[in-house]
Amino acid sequence: MSTGRQRSGPSNDEPPCSIERSLQILGERWALLVLREIFAGRHRFAEIQSSLGIATNLLSSRLKLLVEAGVLHTQTYQEPGSRPRQSYHLTEAGSDLRIVLIALQQWGDVHRPRPSGPSALRRTRSTGRPVHVGFLDDNGQEVPSTAVVTIVAES
User: Fold this and answer.
1) Given this model, what pLDDT does residue 105 score?
2) What is the pLDDT of residue 12?
């Protein structure tokens, strides 16, 4: 029975929409929270688990998915007297997700604010001036989101 959806990809089983393909990896809350922890400098399983309070089996599953998807890579380390373990680090694809996490944080600060204010501020490293996520045109000029249109590509 056909659903009428067009598929793309080598075996025609990949969704044609890049948002849907991204959500296959990042669409579960723990995936983004794990990435938040890694961006914060927590790379070891125990550090991430302790910070998030996530069940170990769930964390193992999320880390495995993020590694298989090329968002994270592992490095082996060994504490004296302990067995070798893996730490988790961002790949280039993972690093590129910083803007996604900051955009979610920015949205939450505006539309789901805490009474005490934002949990984190975004500033430039060099001047400390506030920054925000936005759209830029090919000349580097900011464009209001209401002036941006999405044009769907022909299949």
Assistant:
1) 95
2) 66
